[in-house]
Amino acid sequence: MLKLLYDGEQFSKNPSGRSGIFRVASELLCRLAQRDDVELTLLVSEKEERVKAYLAEKGLAEKVKILFIPNLHKTNKISNILLRSRAAFLTAFLGLRYKKRLQEFDFFFSPYIAVPPLCYQAGIKTGVIVHDLIPVVRPDFYDAKASFPRKYAKQLQILEADTVFFDSISAQKDFLAFRPDFSSAKTVLNYLAAGELFFQVTDEESIAKVREKYNISTGKYILGLSDLNKRKNFPHLLKSFIRFLSDTGRKDISLVIAGPKRAQYQELTETIQKFAEFKDQIIVTGFVADEDLAALYSGAEVFVFPSLYEGFGLPLLEAMSCGTPVIAANNSSLPEVAGDAAIYVSGEDEGETALILTTICQDEKLRRQMAKNAISRAKMFSWDKTVNVLVENIKKEVD
Fold first, then answer.
1. CATH number of 2-193+383-398
2. What is the CATH number of domain 204-378?
3. What residues form DSSP beta bridges with 127?
4. Which residues fall within 8 angstroms of residue 223, CB to CB, at 6 or more apart?
5. What does the pLDDT look like over 283-294, one tens digit per residue?
6. 315-330 pLDDT, tens per residue?
7. N or C terminus of the chain: which is more exposed, having fewer CB within 10 Å?
């Protein structure tokens, strides 16, 4: 029986702040908890009640234990200097007791890059997922004054995990280029998946309800979905859509941009205002509830993902799982994920993207074939495969 200590940090966060990393952490945890060969414990350092609520919601309260070590913070944010001071104080006086508790486990695993120093000091085996090196490879996606790229780079520089998992070959190559001292033998490729939430919805009533909920009034729509940040390249999609409308004169189709309103929301709003004549055909929904995602994807004529850089690209796989034709930018990990199921664009040439939109939206036969290809491609990825690779490699390290 593998005694696995799992980083519970993602489950202590406010539900409104959950991200793609939370979804990955949750999918892995739920499947690990069902295995007979794994005894699972969450390492929690704050908001224990929130973690307990999450476990209860998932029906895992009896299957997953909690090890609570207060103030075991991994962050180096200046705003948390008081918390880090408390952590240092507690570790100085209770460190030996903490280490003994940690040494009861075979392996510490985190679905994110940071490992608590106390885990290293306790001498237990460790493993993490490095989802991407975007802050290091493309710091231009962040505000010039932002400290996150520097701090992220520091976390990667001090990473000494026994096994490092990667979502894509692209991310793996970026990491080994950044850390040439790190043995490639300690790295493992392990693709993500979309999960049961994402499937092809054929019930028109279900799609109609979602359209009504998010004020999609036109007969057809093109979908873009992700966090609204600079890297996701939504202004390009918006301008390409305007070009598409100008070229085709269509009034029966709209552009739906869905996702949490992050840093680029204001810029996007200002861009929309410049094209006032088309504003009724542009819908920005904000956050979309999980239960609405499959119908929203399934109802779209095409899903467009012009992101400028990804470590994996979960929205692309989610759309394909719903049988939605996909257009993707031809960079980083995206061709690894979509293979020959997508039509690729540069993500920089609005005329090129507009032309592809015209081709797909006017050719029903092409859309049907792309939908078929998308579903076939999506079936190549599964969370069960991901968990099997994870456990297999952890056991190798422990043995």
1. 3.40.50.2000
2. 3.40.50.2000
3. 109, 163
4. 256, 258, 296, 297, 300, 302, 303, 304, 319, 324
5. 999 889 889 999
6. 999 999 999 999 999 9
7. C
